[in-house]
Amino acid sequence: MSVSHLRRVAVLVLEGAKPLDVGIPAQVFSTRGSMPYEVRLCGAAPGLVTGGDGLSYHVAHGLEALAWAGIVFIPGYRFPDREDPPPPVVEALIAAHDRGARLAAISTGAFALAATGLLDGKRATTHWHYTRALAAKHPEIRVDENVLFVDEGTVLTSAGAASGIDLCLHILRGDLGVAASNHAARRLVAAPYRSGGQAQYVPRSVPEPLGERFAATREWALHRLDDPLTLETLAGHAGVSERTFSRRFAEDTGYTPMQWVMRARIDRARELLERSQRSVEQIAADVGLGTGANLRLHFQRILGTTPSEYRRTFARGE
Length: 318
Known about the structure:
Elements: E1 7-12, H1 19-28, E2 37-42, E3 47-50, E4 56-59, H2 64-68, E5 71-74, H3 87-98, E6 102-105, H4 109-115, E7 123-124, H5 131-137, E8 142-143, E9 149-151, E10 155-158, H6 163-176, H7 178-188, H8 208-222, H9 231-238, H10 242-253, H11 257-275, H12 280-286, H13 292-303, H14 307-314
Parallel strand pairs: 1-2, 1-5, 5-6, 6-10, 7-8
Antiparallel strand pairs: 3-4, 9-10
Helix pairs in contact: 1-6, 6-7, 8-9, 9-10, 11-13, 11-14, 12-13
């Protein structure tokens, strides 16, 4: 793939930047055959940037990288509630957004994004430890502390560091499709997809064996999407009552069990549309939706498009 066809990603490294927050987008979007991106790490100026947790970074680019990029990631940094980034950084972020770039904050990077005013009137999240501080400092923002990430179109925010992976995979799904996102997840040994609505943390202590049992049931269901999957079936596999299963499942995933099953079936249909030449009717049967009409109905409801339109956009063949 020629350099001119690569999608441009800038990772803005601020003073006190957290190592994992910097590394996630740099690794996820690093250029390879399956990933048509070019990544540039930048700072307020080229050179050494003192990071957090005992690490520093030598960045090759200054704020001009924000004018070059189509996606700008803002990793989290130490003491985000104490003061805003330098005015030139804030101005460069606003200018990048005005030119059409997407701005994506990981963890406390949301504070830098909030300083631009671009989150005013919108939903946003950040690391759970700082959600109240973000709401207090920027009351114009609708801070949601109970989600992994929030996508407001051209401005996106995520919770603590690991949820930065979820945000990156979410962006990949929108850019390249489900197959590419799942491939990246496998390479990272990460969950293929956790919804933005999933809670940052379970609000009360959960015995570990039960947590493992629910994860095992989700994995079991993913391999049987063409079978009838009812609440009774899923709860029976987990070995708990339907009421307990429904309540705990929603806490863990942000969806009811049957909403999750439907979205899993649509995701599988998306991957088949991208990678195979099977008809819509065949795919509907493969994923447990029965008929092409049923697949089209739920595809439109969940994704706002048709299977045929989706295939034209993302199809790669086998």
